[in-house]
Amino acid sequence: MSTPAETAWQVRELLSQLEFAQAGRLLEEALKEHADDPDLNSLMCFVLAHVGRTAEALTFAERAAGAAPEHPHVLTNLGSALMNLGRLDEAVDVLRRAVSFEGVGTRARHALAMTLNVAKRYGEAVDVAREGLDRAVMDPALSMDLAGSYVGLARADLAAKTLRGMLSWYPDQPNAVGNLATMLNYVPGLDPLTIRQAHDAYGDILGRFLPPPQPPAISDPDPERILRLGVIIPDLVGNAVAQFIRPLLENLDTSRFELFVYYTSPAENVEAAWPRMVAHTARRLPWHTEAQMDPVLRGDRLDILMDLVGMTTHHRLPSMHLKPAPIQVTYAGYPNTTGIAAIDYRIVDSITDPPGAERLSVEKLVRLDPCFLCFVPPELAPEASRTRGRPITFGSFNHLPKINDKLLRLWARVLEAVPGSRMVIKAEALSHADTRGSLMERFVASGAEASRVEIRPPTTTRAEHLAMYSEIDIALDTFPYHGTTTTCEAMYVGVPVVTLAGNSHVSRVGVSLLTNAGMAENVAGSEDEYVRIAAGLAGEGARLDSLRGGLRKQMMASPLCDTGAFAKRFQAALRVMWRDRCGRG
After folding, report:
1. Are residues 282 and 345 in the same domain?
2. CB contact at 8 A, 400 and 431
3. How confident is the model at residue 581 (pLDDT cuts 50, 70, 90)?
């Protein structure tokens, strides 16, 4: 029988080769003889956490901590296990103990900063990451943590600066290259070609680290046969894109398509779906590397594989780079090119991507006119109503990273143009008072009066979120990164939205949504016009009342909510892709 130290060495060798199953079996046998060994228990915790068995992982982390309560490595594993189970306050307490030891390495600080980011305690995470970077200059993990904290605080400009600095020292970091490209979507004033180049850099670095794409041959080139369609999505429950893919999945012609859904989120309820969803093959792949995922995808003999994640959380772009399907498509999950040349098509429309937009995308653009999106209204949406006896209230319930200082100055101008008006900002990331206070300071510095601004924490349920629109008269869209779900929700409950048109997809989604909902008059071509439109609406009480009562009906009658027509257009577009591929093959 090997000693615990010898077994630990063997396990680490297996883990370096991603042999988690074999490492787990070796640890299981060793722990029968050495049940209290802290190193073996910590390693078992790591193995189980990696394969998604988070509750079991915590058991082994607690055993290790019981045997070595003053060991920072053991405490780091325990804190990480608690974080994976969502016990964030406990995790932070344990990890603060871990980093308190003299000479502790960057791993414990990385775990603490990451946990604070998950808990949306971004200001604290900034302090931890900076302290770590003072000791380990440009450390990749801590730099990524710091950038994530800045994004959470709506400072994508600082996040991009952080990643650029780190990549100047450590250029071979695919995740950092991808994150930098993503963060540039939020930064105002950038040339779209600069952002395109950042995405191309991500595709290039994947090409350096991964095998070249190997598309499978088409065994049956019949252009009209049933197609095996794969869809990659984190989940069908809480993911925002799920609402917009729902019309296709509920109306898929099963005489023409066979559906496969690949879930990438580690959440337990990812497979929950709608009662009307067609029969499909479902696979959970949250912990699979591209080397493990590729044979699964190829084994399903897909004809078309559609990515609905892009560069967002739980994405699988490295797997898309390997090209496990003859045709690959990206749609809806990300408002820009992926930079992955192995993805053949990107589905947009002629408003989001007018002629000439091809220069900003590595994929071939497929324009699904009149709108590339279709909105399924939430079942719990309240009846439209307008609160009386209060000042005109503007609002933004968008994702906090979409806010920036230039936008705050624009919103301050809107408030100045409408004397006595108010502004309400609510976002998921505003759960902590420090984050709300930081945003308020920036808004005041941008010219707003604090007494006219309310910054609220997130609501608990979607029903509460939707009910808050009763307090809002006019929604102000973000820029350059437009809202999508929030824009549709606002209009559905009768709140008009004002948006500012930009020069690339990320800043033109709102233009498409408003135009297709019959609200094109609320699309501004300049900041001055944005202020004029918002102020003009504020002075039209009768029109606001009319919109409260009629905008939902108007929206439901528009292409934006015509699920049947949308599903037919989408399926026709997929069929054209297939026919074209067969013609070439």
Report:
1. yes
2. no
3. very high
Q: Where are the beta strands (DSSP E) in 308-408?
A: 327-331, 345-348, 364-367, 393-396
Cα 462 to the center of its chain, rounded Å: 18
Q: What pLDDT score was predicted for residue 585?
A: 43
In a domain, 416, yes or no: yes
Residue 356 has pLDDT above 80, yes or no: yes
Task: Give residue 270's domain range.
Answer: 227-374+564-584
pLDDT surpasses 60 at 353: yes
Residue 499 β-bridge partners? 523
Q: Which pTM does this prediction carry?
A: 0.94
Question: Edge-to-edge strands of the sheet including 257-263?
Answer: 280-284, 257-263, 227-233, 304-307, 327-331, 345-348, 364-367
CA–CA distance, 426 with 267 (Å, rounded to integer) = 25
Query: Is 181 a domain residue?
Result: no
Question: Cis omega (within 30 of 0) on the bond before 275?
Answer: no
State the CB neighbour count (10 A cutoff) for residue 202.
25
At 240 the pLDDT is 85
* Site of tokens 């101008």: 413
Q: Distance of alpha carbon 100 from its chain centroid, rounded?
A: 33
Domain boundary among 115, 137, 156: 156
Secondary structure class of 346 (helix, strand, coil): strand
Q: How does pLDDT run across 504-513, given as a tens digit for each residue?
A: 999 999 999 9
Same domain, 408 and 520: yes
**For residue 387, what pLDDT is reported?**
66
Same domain, residue pair 335 and 443: no
